[in-house]
Amino acid sequence: MSDEVLSGEAVAIDVQPVGFLLRAVGAIIDMLLGYAVFILWIFVRIWLGDAGILDEATDRIAIVTSIVVSFVVLPITMEVVLKGRSLGKLAIGGRIVRVDGGAAGFRHAFIRGLIGVLEIYMTFGGIAVLAGAFNARSQRLGDMVAGTYSQRVRTPKLIPSAPVLPPALAGWAQIADVARLPDRLARRISQFLQSAPRMVPAARARVAQELLADASPFVSPIPPAPPEMVLVGMTVLRRERERRALQNADARTERLTGRRVGV
Q: Is 185 part of any domain?
C-alpha cells in the first residue's frame, strides 16, 4: 500500500507505510530494550539496597522511577532525539511521521509513549497487534490518538543483475514514454527477461512478440528493433524512472520533515 501526501509547496510525495509484520519486529526490538533497561534498574536497586543506601521509602520511589524511565521516558526520548525513530525502527527502516507526512514532534511522541505503556508493555503488545492488524497503515492505538503512522524511509536496492539499455536504443530512450505501462505487465516482462536465456529459441521469440504486442498500447513510440531488445529497453527505462521517483520522494520527505522539526 502507498499513500500520497502534499508538501507545503503542493508537491505530491508518494510514501509507503511500514507493513504489519515489520512493525511487529520493530516493536519487539523496542520492547526488549525497555525490559532490558528495567532489569538493569532492578540490579542497581538490589546493589544499592545491599549497600544500605536505599531504605523502604526510597526503594518504593526507585521502583516507580525505574518503571517510568524504562517504559515512558526512554521511548519518548529516543523518538524525539532520533526524529521519529527508535532502535526497532532503525532496524526495519521506518520513521514515525504525522498522517499528513510531516515530522512528528514531542507531543506525538509523548502521546504514543503514554499509551504504549498500556498497549505494548502491560499487554506484551496484545492491544497493539489487534489495532495494527485491522488498520490499513498498521497503526497502533497510540498512532491513532496521536495522528501518526510508521513510514518506510529505506529505499529498496535494485537487483544487481538489472538489464542494460542496448546501445541501439539510446536515441529512442530520449523520447520514449513508458509511464503508462501497467505494473502487472511490467512484472511479466521482467520475469520473461530473467528466464529468457533458459528458453528454447522458438518459444523465446514467440513470448517476446506476445509481450511486445501487449505492451504496445502503453508505450510510445515503439522502436524498429527486435521484440526482446525493445522489452529490455522498456524495462530499463521503467526501472530508471522508478529509481528516480524513489530518490526524489526520499529527498522531499527529508526536506519536509527537516523543516517541520525546525519550526
A: yes
φ, ψ for residue 120, nearest 5 deg:
-110, -60
Tell me the C-alpha distance between 257 and 98, whole Å.
10
With 0-12 CB in 10 A as exposed, 13-18 as middle and 19+ as buried, what is 200? exposed
Which residues pair with residue 12 across a beta bridge?
Answer: 6
What is the extent of the structural domain holding 226?
167-251
Q: Which residues in the chain show pLDDT less than 50?
A: 1-2, 4-14, 156, 158-160, 261-263
Does one domain contain both 179 and 148?
no
- Helix, strand, coil share (%) of the chain residues, nearest 5: 65, 10, 25
Q: What is the pLDDT of residues 129-169, one digit of tens each?
A: 888 888 878 889 999 999 999 888 765 454 445 678 888 98
CA-to-CA distance for 157 and 187, rounded, in angstroms?
Answer: 17
Number of domains within the chain: 2
